[in-house]
Amino acid sequence: MHIQKYLLFAHPTLSVNDVRPIPTCEYRWQNGQGDSKTHGGIYRIWSGMTPEIVVTHPDPIWTIFNDSNQHIKASNNDAGWLMGQLLRECLGLISDSNDLRLLPFWVFVNILYGELNDTQREKIIFILPLREALFRRIVDGDLRKYKCQWEEIKMSVYLARRDAEEEPPIVEIYKAVGKGSITSKSLLQTLEEMLFANLDVTIGGLSWNLLFLASDKRMQDMIQQEFQNRARPQGATRAWEEYIASLNTLLNASILESARLKPLSAFSVPQSALFNRIIGSYRIPAGINFIVGTYELNIRNPYWGENRGKFQPTWFLKRKPLEMRY
Questions:
Q1: What does the record list as coiled-coil region(s) (predicted)?
Q2: What are the extents of the domains in the chain?
């Protein structure tokens, strides 16, 4: 209770007439909790002791994010010290590392580093459980141990590729470090993000599309027929390349629809505006982080129709992208 009073005093966010405070979740150690059913379309939660403004309706989103290119991302993604130690100069999350997840991991490792020998693969397999455990709040000693081992593996693979006069992407990246274009720390954390964070998120998102399509035979047939209709005039190879690149296809619509129904996270990445914002009837000070409640916005909002909880890719072919941007 005393912490709650202090936080409300330290972070005043009031209505435009300075009368009503913004609806706020009660502070709980370590994070405040709440949803729009209790607090409405705009409310405040606590990430640790940092305030975040949650937006769950589309109307104020343009006001908040129309200059998002000038926004400042939250330090360590508002995910704490450990995240900063691993990905301070990058953003992303990692999930489990079971065999299914490791398949795309190894594909991407081979693209980045070239084909690994058995010893190099065994070294990476050895440290994977340690990397996973770091997200379970393992002590600082394990963090240092992991970082040292991972840096050693990366350097040894790079040196082996360089000495063999091979040039996978990792060689060019290390050359950039030697030229001073990027720092060694930035390199190591970017590789961390590429191999564990972004890849995991991307594969997770695409996997839902496969599951939705696998359970919808009618949509499978429609996508197959759509591609065949495009392939007849110009041949399969060229048609396939153009089909994959096109944004106006059922396949692309199914990816968008699966992303709508299964958001990668409950909230967007926290970011703050450089200037005060009037959101609804509240004045939000500059520097306060905003996050978007993706479930409320993408699934529960009436905009998506009566069957908004069902997989309906054709919906995206009936609307212009600009119409759905916010």
A1: none
A2: 2-89+263-324, 90-205
- Between CA 134 and CA 97 the distance in angstroms is 13
Model confidence pLDDT, tens digit, residues 112-161 = 888 888 888 888 888 777 666 665 544 444 667 777 887 888 888 888 88
Cα–Cα distance list, 129 to 96, 132, 197, 228 (Å): 9, 5, 15, 45
Tell me: the pLDDT tens digits for 283-300?
888 888 898 888 888 888
CA distance 17 to 38: 23
Least confident of 57-61, 199-203, 309-313: 199-203
End-to-end CA distance of the chain: 37
Rounded to two decimals, the pTM is: 0.64
Q: What's the token pair of residue 96? A: 């489990």
Longest CA–CA span in the chain (Å) reads 72
How far apart are alpha carbons 190 and 170 in whole angstroms?
12
Q: Which long-range contacts (CB under 8 A, 24 or more apart) does 128-131 make?
A: 128/97, 128/102, 129/97, 131/94, 131/97, 131/196
Average pLDDT over residues 19-41: 67
Select from 250, 258, 264, 257 the least CA-distant residue to 211.
258
**Structure-block tokens of residue 253:** 């619509």
Q: What are phi and psi of 268, to 5 degrees?
A: -75, 170
Contact call for residues 185 and 85 (beta carbons, < 8 A):
no
Q: Which amino acid is at 29?
A: W
| CA–CA dist 172, 234 (Å, integer) | 38
Sign of CA dihedral 213, 214, 215, 221: positive
